[in-house]
Amino acid sequence: MNYIVLDLEWNQGSKNEEPNEELHFEIIEIGAVCLNESGVIVSEFSRLIKPQIYHEMHKITSRLIHLQMQELEHGEPFPVVMKDFMEWCGEERMFCTWGPLDLGELQENMRYYGMEPLAAGPIPFLDVQKLFSLAYEDGRSRRTLEYAVDFLKLEKDIPFHRAFSDAYYAGKVLAAIPGRVRGNISYDVFNPPRSREEEVKIVFDTYAKYISRVFPNKTAALSDKEVISSKCYICNKNLKKKIRWFTPNGRHYYCVAQCDVHGLMKGKIRIRRAAEEEVYVVKTTRFISEEEFEKIRERREHAREQRKKRRKR
After folding, report:
1. What is the pTM of this model?
2. What does the alpha-carbon distance between residue 305 and residue 288 come to, in Å, rounded to a whole number?
3. pLDDT, position 68
4. Residue from 171, 196, 185, 162 nearest 29 by CA
């Protein structure tokens, strides 16, 4: 298994160019390094892409990456670079990125040019930014790449803020992360599951995640037994709810269930938009303390009070 650590730079509409409704962010550079299982960089990829949509560099993009539009004229069209990139990646690979955005933007550009998607469903990948937090901080904070490099006292031998250099440094950070932490896989859901068989169910050290298939609307999703079930991810027993599903904001839903062996378990549902009106669900479950249980109970009561006030208006 090779680890493909990639980074993208992209441009967008400026004050003199209207945004393209089909592609808001046009990729202008792909950089990547390939790490073997020992964390050693064994090959590199770096290519500029000749713009087809935006022909003026957005001022923020220019300031961040120090790249001029004239330089991009020496690049090649996105489909050509992407084909070469995929051949360079090979078959036995795990994509890795700093943060969760790059794979989605890559596939958005691929779709714009009518290319085959990277996968028919969710893509497992390593979010190195998240792994750094899990390994060295609280698991929730999200640091800059340069902060991680400085924290780990890695040598800074090339400038930051270009696709290849950021991929290079992210690869060095990944190599420094303990192997046990790398098991915390993320999923890019540019193409969500379309059948029950494609749904994602995965258990980590401290929580479980479920990514549902696509439903025609939110009502259908929240009527599905698998979506609203509470099951202990340690002993696999169906649990009785102490707090039924409720929403404080219409976007996130919470519940608490009780396992007689393993204790109180919180469920959280996030509704995500797929194509058109379709939605899918990301559900996480984790065990919580009595104090956390009480906070959720208070949050439910507050949500009930807010609904009552709205009905009286």
Report:
1. 0.89
2. 25
3. 72
4. 162
